[in-house]
Design a protein that fits this description.
Elements: E1 25-34, E2 41-50, E3 56-57, E4 61-64, E5 73-80, E6 87-93, E7 99-100, E8 107-109, E9 114-121, E10 127-137, E11 140-150
Parallel strand pairs: 4-11
Antiparallel strand pairs: 1-2, 3-5, 5-9, 6-8, 6-10, 7-9, 10-11
């Protein structure tokens, strides 16, 4: 706010206007200049937009193949922030105990940055396992499907038949 500014003939006055908002979206306002000219009020329209951070995940699913019971395997999810504002990941949710991560939350990803999150699969039974990694952030939420397979052991025989011939009662043959 400037008061009692005098602008002489053929002179000018520069005004500096700043934009600051804590609300996402388009913000508008008007600067009004009151004066003693033939146009006593001059209005200057102002507009600015606050853009929310953007959560971007490179893949929509992760597949863990042929992980034996008791073993573990790992893969990664690449989470990025293509926006100009910091992205905060508040939660990485997985329901089952077969899939897990060791990330400390919250995770802050700076503008145009990324974070590689390592996921682990450790089955305690044979079969196929499916879960969802839910990523919750101030730039939206995303889900990544997790699939893991722990194959059943395969029994193979060197021979499909064994012939012991004639064996007397009480005796054995190999």
């Amino acid at each position: 706010s400037i008061s009692n500014g005098i602008v002489n003939p053929n002179d000018s006055l520069s005004l500096s206007v700043s934009f600051l908002s804590n609300t996402v979206g388009l913000q508008t306002d008007t600067v009004k200049i009151f004066n003693n000219s033939t146009t006593p009020i001059t209005k200057i329209a102002l507009a600015g937009t606050i853009v929310a951070p953007t959560l971007s995940v490179q893949q929509d699913s992760v597949l863990f193949l042929n992980t034996a019971v008791g073993d573990s395997s790992s893969d990664v999810v690449n989470i990025s922030n293509p926006s100009i504002y910091p992205l905060t990941i508040n939660s990485l949710q997985i329901q089952s105990s077969y899939f897990y991560h060791h990330e400390t939350l919250p995770i802050v990803i700076q503008p145009t940055g990324n974070k590689i999150v390592t996921l682990n699969f450790q089955p305690n039974a044979f079969g196929t396992f499916v879960d969802t990694l839910k990523i919750l952030s101030n730039g939206g939420n995303k889900s990544v499907i997790l699939r893991g397979k722990s194959p059943s052991p395969l029994l193979t025989l060197s021979k499909d038949t064994l012939n012991f011939g004639d064996v007397a009662i009480g005796n054995s043959r190999q």
